Known about the structure:
Two copies of one chain form a homodimer. The first copy, chain A, has helices at 19-26, 35-41, 58-70, 89-95, 112-120, 140-152, 170-179, 206-209, and strands at 2-8, 30-34, 49-53, 75-79, 102-107, 121-122, 128-132, 156-160, 187-192, 200-205, 218-222, 228-230, 233-235. With 243 residues, chain A is of the alpha/beta class. In chain A, helix 6 (140-152) links the parallel strand 7 (128-132) and strand 8 (156-160). The mean pLDDT of chain A is 94.
Amino acid sequence: xxxxxxxxxxxxxxxxxxxxxxxxxxxxxxxxxxxxxxxxxxxxxxxxxxxxxxxxxxxxxxxxxxxxxxxxxxxxxxxxxxxxxxxxxxxxxxxxxxxxxxxxxxxxxxxxxxxxxxxxxxxxxxxxxxxxxxxxxxxxxxxxxxxxxxxxxxxxxxxxxxxxxxxxxxxxxxxxxxxxxxxxxxxxxxxxxxxxxxxxxxxxxxxxxxxxxxxxxxxxxxxxxxxxxxxxxxxxxxxxxxx
Amino acid sequence: xxxxxxxxxxxxxxxxxxxxxxxxxxxxxxxxxxxxxxxxxxxxxxxxxxxxxxxxxxxxxxxxxxxxxxxxxxxxxxxxxxxxxxxxxxxxxxxxxxxxxxxxxxxxxxxxxxxxxxxxxxxxxxxxxxxxxxxxxxxxxxxxxxxxxxxxxxxxxxxxxxxxxxxxxxxxxxxxxxxxxxxxxxxxxxxxxxxxxxxxxxxxxxxxxxxxxxxxxxxxxxxxxxxxxxxxxxxxxxxxxxx
Lengths: 243, 243
């Protein structure tokens, strides 16, 4: 059966890929992905045919990958981070109905919540929620509701897509919602360009976070009520009782 | 400076490790971990000194790893999945204050939410919450509150540690809380022994899930209001609008 691998390659370095992801990419005839992502990894796969398209052309890109696989080529459709989370795995499965001869294999990867968390310390030791601030495909009221629920539930929160040119104040609004339930001293942090050139991280508080400009390559962490600083690292303890 | 690597090795297969994790483990003098986890990976690192301890001896194990590193050995403290999430990274950072000569590096890994999700399809395409049902270190009321908040926020939910001998009915109680807010037809799934011998997965509904017996090596997925079945796979769409 023809195979389409939907591969999450992690932050973008070779070291951050799983061995399974590297093996699939090494044996692919074609690598398909968003230009920014294929640019990150093409240096590791110089011999490969790479087909890349611009942002928001997810459907075209996925159709192309499915067609290539249907024609008998080994295809990897790549995503940074994990292949499910805000990635292409769901869309590939949705569109695959028209390609019954193609078997889809989802190869997971390390998403920014974990690769970024590891840079800051261990913010995600315990229960957490991931929320994207992009309202391109989700109504903004739903996003606000989730921020509120995550704050009330005292989850550690990871924000993806915290900003873009059109949404310059979304992080500020998210912080304001959180500040209705959480103290301004809550430990927060963010990491830009995780595992890439110009990686940059900062630890701050919820009160300060709302004044900070971030870009779409930034991942933001908001601690729970137990999150603390230890030697300049963010640490969420494993629970409320201590051995 | 002496190094202690806290390494998440993914589900347990060599293929599921990142290259970074494999490199750290290959160059370690000592590998330290919970017996169940070191048993999983020792076949890949036959030449290594392995120090393993039983469950709940996390503090002893971490102290041992820090001491070994302080004495100049290259040490990897290993966790299955990711090294932060319900793992040892937080504790290592907490205990490291007594070992200023040891530099701790957190190496992230693919956690069960993603390795298990990839087996079921793409349940985690969009915003999600992870909740552990273990009340060993968290008050049960807090766990219930989080389940409620995750249901109200319409997050896809991943449950870790859904059961143990003492907590045989915790998944049932979690489902009952969710059923107050979500229809019984909500798509759910679970995966046992992800990436290991006797891996087993099943797709079901929230109404059925509460009747199912699971063990502590099972990861449970509860869909959001948009989650659907496509060709026997769980797919959460990327958002509410479609291109």
